[in-house]
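S.,

Sequence below, as promised.
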Amino acid sequence: MNISKLLFYASLLSVILSIGIWTGIVPLCSSETCKITAVFVGLWAPTLMSMSNRFKV
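The prediction came back faster than expected:
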């Protein structure tokens, strides 16, 4: 697996993780900070996707 595919799958994982944190399925934070943590994790997706395009061979 090359780095481009790895970053692409990481971006998909960040979207899934963000949804899980937002809904409370993934207990990574306290109830007061879950929504802001989910937004923070969700913002990783565009960065990882652009890095995936950058390393495409």
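The two ends are 12 Å apart (CA to CA).

Coffee later?
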